[in-house]
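Need residues for this backbone.
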């Protein structure tokens, strides 16, 4: 294999197994977006059918799942030398995509302190980040990608004029970058809201338990007026905490609600009660609109 990017296909056999090399960054970027959009479509359909409503699946707001774009290009780059063998292509595709999914899940957990998808309830899973069922499906998808989709899509793109390639690439890159920045900021804000809400819930629990204990002591000891004032002050503090809780739950923006809906199995390292509360608040808001 010679230098340059290694996305290639053979026109005569229509198989990605040698011939011409594509090093044009514009085509590579458009291929990335195309496969990201195809992955988003498959994910959204797969998740929307059992939910009986449309779910915009994916980390970004737009109709793309970048992990599928990266996975597709990795598969084409790494699996081209073995594309002649269907069994090797299937096994290689299953391995490459599963490793990518595992690494992506680990990175998201590390950055945002949340587990965005969780396969812990599925058989043969690894740390809840990958599972055998998905691995087998990814293998099939890689075979279809290498044998059918990629040669055709690449052929179409190479027919575009240089001017149109540049124009599409610049416009779509700007849109993609803006979406990526907005989505990352939204995820970071959501993490902050979860942390703040969990802190409020923990403090409410502590104050409530303390108040119950003190009320029992007050009944027994017949606490004087000073004790009653202290109790009233504690009740005011609890009321203020509940007001903060309500404001936080009502401050969910579209980006936050979309992320909660897109990742229904998302779990946070600390704050399970907080994410449950925010999901309930988002559901109430959705019902009001319906």
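Answer:
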């Amino acid at each position: 294999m010679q230098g340059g990017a290694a996305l290639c296909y053979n026109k005569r056999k229509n198989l990605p197994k040698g011939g011409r090399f594509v090093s044009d960054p514009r085509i590579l970027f458009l291929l990335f977006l195309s496969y990201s959009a195809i992955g988003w479509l498959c994910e959204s359909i797969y998740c929307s059918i059992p939910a009986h409503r449309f779910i915009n699946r994916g980390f970004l707001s737009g109709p793309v799942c970048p992990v599928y774009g990266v996975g597709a290009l990795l598969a084409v780059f790494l699996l081209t030398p073995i594309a002649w063998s269907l069994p090797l292509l299937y096994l290689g595709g299953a391995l490459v995509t599963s490793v990518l999914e595992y690494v992506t899940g680990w990175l998201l957990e590390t950055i945002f302190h949340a587990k965005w998808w969780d396969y812990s309830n599925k058989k043969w899973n690894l740390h809840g980040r990958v599972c055998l069922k998905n691995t087998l499906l990814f293998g099939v998808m890689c075979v279809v990608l290498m044998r059918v989709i990629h040669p055709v899509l690449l052929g179409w793109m190479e027919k575009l004029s240089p001017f149109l390639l540049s124009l599409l690439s610049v416009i779509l890159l700007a849109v993609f970058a803006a979406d990526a920045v907005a989505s990352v900021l939204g995820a970071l804000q959501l993490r902050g809201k979860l942390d703040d809400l969990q802190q409020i819930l923990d403090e409410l629990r502590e104050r409530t338990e303390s108040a119950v204990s003190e009320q029992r002591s007050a009944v027994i000891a017949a606490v004087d007026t000073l004790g009653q004032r202290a109790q009233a002050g504690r009740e005011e503090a609890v009321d203020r905490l509940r007001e903060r809780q309500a404001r936080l739950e009502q401050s969910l923006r579209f980006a936050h609600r979309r992320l909660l809906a897109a990742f229904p199995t998302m779990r946070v390292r600390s704050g399970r009660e907080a994410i449950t509360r925010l999901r309930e608040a988002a559901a109430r808001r959705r019902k009001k609109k319906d």
